[in-house]
């Protein structure tokens, strides 16, 4: 696990619209740091480096990102990182922002994934992320946990979901996990939500950051094929059906700007238009991996 730290100096902001929202306070004059060396860490580092008004926060964008991971050693390293970071945040009065998962591995395969519900993890990865949420909440530091869906954007690692599908389809053969669904979110929209939550001073909360639209694996593959103008041979792997829909109600209540993202049934197609037909490069996490 590679964890780099980048910092972005910032000045104070006031949380317009904060009135009436539980767990919200006005942020003070301070800076943001990002821990991590992956896709999300790079995107967040660039975003906050360009900001002139951000509160004191430490974003942990490093740790276990492969949803198929089962290694106690990998899980242990992430826990150590979180505990060390939480101690430093507590000592220096910084907000600890932990990136968890909104995937079925944590919420379960069906129903609605709500922050106030009872998650039913079915994977070691999901159980680990839920345990890390408890570590963060009990650390004594001010904290904010964001449960992320699958983020999509430029300069992703080639093994992440959409770049992986692009690469496979170009090769002529693609693995399709029949029965699986994925919730895709533009990394730019994640950064808007994160930015506003920090500006509002939201803390002590778990918030889903997702599109709320699950995309069946076969539809996703067909969508990428359409935009590449080619069709690949399918290699099917049947998995238990996933119909989970991640709730975005709290996200939209805290960050009304999220209603301007175009979330809804057409959102995944617009995302593929932008990052397959448009800006996505084939540079470059695992096709079933996470976001960091």
Characteristics of this structure?
292 residues; alpha/beta; 6-stranded mixed beta sheet; 3-stranded mixed beta sheet; 9 helices; 13 strands; 21% strand; disordered C terminus
Series of secondary-structure elements, N-terminal to C-terminal:
EEHEHEHEHEEHEEHEEHEEHH
- Main β-sheet description: 6 strands, mixed
Overall shape: it is: globular
| Number of separate strands | 13
Query: What class, by secondary structure content?
Result: alpha/beta
The strand line-up of the biggest sheet is 1-2-3-4-6-10
State the end-to-end CA separation.
10 Å
The whole-number mean of residue pLDDT values reads 86
Q: Radius of gyration from the CA trace? A: 18 Å
Q: In terms of per-residue confidence, which ranges show pLDDT below 50 for 5 or more consecutive residues?
A: 5-30, 279-292
Helix content: 25-40%
Percentage of β-strand residues: 15-25%
> What is the count of helical runs?
9
Structure at a glance:
The protein is built from nine helices and 13 strands.
Tell me the layout of helices and strands:
Layout: E1 5-9, E2 31-35, H1 39-49, E3 57-60, H2 72-92, E4 95-101, H3 104-107, E5 112-113, H4 124-137, E6 143-148, E7 150-152, H5 161-171, E8 173-178, E9 181-186, H6 187-200, E10 205-209, E11 214-216, H7 217-228, E12 233-238, E13 245-246, H8 249-254, H9 267-278
Parallel strand pairs: 2-3, 3-4, 4-6, 5-13, 6-10, 7-9, 8-12
Antiparallel strand pairs: 1-2, 9-11
Helix pairs in contact: 2-4, 5-7, 7-9
Descriptive report:
The chain is α/β, with parallel strands linked by helices and 292 residues long. Helix content is 36%, strand content 21%. It contains nine helices and 13 strands. The strands form four sheets. A six-stranded mixed sheet has the order 1-2-3-4-6-10, sandwiched between helices. Strands 7-9-11 form a three-stranded mixed sheet. A two-stranded parallel sheet has the order 5-13. Helix 1 links the parallel strand 2 (31-35) and strand 3 (57-60). It is globular, with a radius of gyration of 18 Å. The protein starts with a strand and ends in a 14-residue tail after the last helix. Residues 5-30 and 279-292 have low confidence and may be disordered.
